[in-house]
Amino acid sequence: MLSCAALSATIPLTLTACSGGGTASAQASPGAEPATGGIVQVLEKPDFSHLDPARGFDGGVNNFYRLIYRTLTTRAAAGPHSSGTKIVADLATDTGRPSDNNKTWAFTLKKGLFFENGSPITSRDVKFGVERAWDPDAGIGSPYAKQVIAAPADYQGPYRSGDLDTIETPDDRTVVFHLKRSYPQFASVAAQPNFTPFPKGTGAKAAFDREPIASGPYRVASYRRGSALKLVRNKHWKRSSDPVRTARPDGFVWTFGLDAATIDERLISGQGKDINAIGPKVQPATISRLRTPQLKQRTLTGVTGCTTYMSLNTTKGPLRDVRVRQAIEYAVNKQTTVDALGGSALATAATSIEPPSIPGRDATDVYPSKDGTGDPAAARRLLARAGFAKGFTLTVDTRAAATEQAVAVAIQQGLKRVGITVKINTIDTSTFYEVIGTPSQQHDAALTGWCPDWPGGTTFLPPLFDGRTISAKGNSVLSMLDDKKIQKRIDEIAAMRDETAQNAAYGKLDAQIMKLAPIVPLNYTKNVVVVGSNIAGAHPSISYSGGIDLVGIGLADPKK
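Above: the chain sequence. Below: its structure as tokens.
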């Protein structure tokens, strides 16, 4: 999935650390079991990209979706003894029944499933929800349904093309998917947001971005774009049918539009309702303030499992020449991008596309340099061979967030060393992925990131580098790489039945792709978050970019 990195600010923090949230003995442990009741406050700067699960696809919004939506399968809740990566049954009775060498998958829905209006959830609702992934306007989110489910080349979703025959519903509780090829990991695909069921015929013209139809434990009570969102209990959700969501709080309230430094201050101070609040990862300037016993007790850390990278559009100008792209690989000073993100506490320099959390990952660095600082001499030689000894100008798309801006400047300075002038194009965070995922709007390069949708190379390399999936909207192949040899190897690896061998093969493919230099892997990110003193059930999940898994969170004392 696209990386939803937390926003940052460079405003200095002046409140002393000793003001944070009372004594350690008076605070609940963030990992303790929450009580039932109360309202969890969530402080954020950007709004969600989309409330429609066919449109949104990043770590932050995917985490949110599980509060209001359910899918055939889902990830287990993160906890003291769970990483939150195991796929378990959700709406379905199991994680699917494969046949025909994993090319056909059948699921049976549990009994007693309902939408927020009380109408039953049927197999036809699941089918319709998945079909929306092909809609040219709505289907800009997770790419996996379109990549693995068989469909006519001209199919454009249920609103334009009607029913998709390769998804069958023989009765109200059975849904059968026919795939393009053997796909042993389809149970993980069925956990993607765009497998959310909806009543047939609903959701046209971005209706779900305004008024979602809930199938999970909460429903949207009110929503003001860019300002606030309120969730309340969905009375038609049954805990007995849901093995994952504890739904301990009575509701959630998101407050958007807050400055990142302000969020840090509020969580550290812990005044009023902020004792019941969570937020994004802290800013680099805040790290040194989290050393007191009171704040240490409220601090959670962990890896995100994500790679931050700069895509290089292989169809634009000088970037068409692989030698130019390779020169950029050498010219970038990755260590300065780590510094821009807050140093080693929040990131480490990347040596490959896949992060260390991916099984079978090969850490081979195709463009090595001392301490990741780059090799300008090697870059200049490649530029000279390509006919660009005097350099050129390129434009990099990035988000309107302080850390992303700082990374862009680090890239700018690194490339300046070899005569490449970088122009920084800033895009609003809430629309960033939609813009760069539209090839007609994308510039030469983009600063972004990718996180695995489940642990394995399948969710890292094919979505980013299989040129057959390039689309006019919702495109994840930002490099526009369309290489037949890479595609052939992707197909060969996909056909492997042994998952261990498959992951090892993807590890080797990583280096093969990097020789074509379609992206510059910059760093592997980490999370450091502070929660309110009354927060309980807070466990980071690598499945959601290292953020706190929302399905298990709650309050220690709902009366506070």
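The mean pLDDT is 92.
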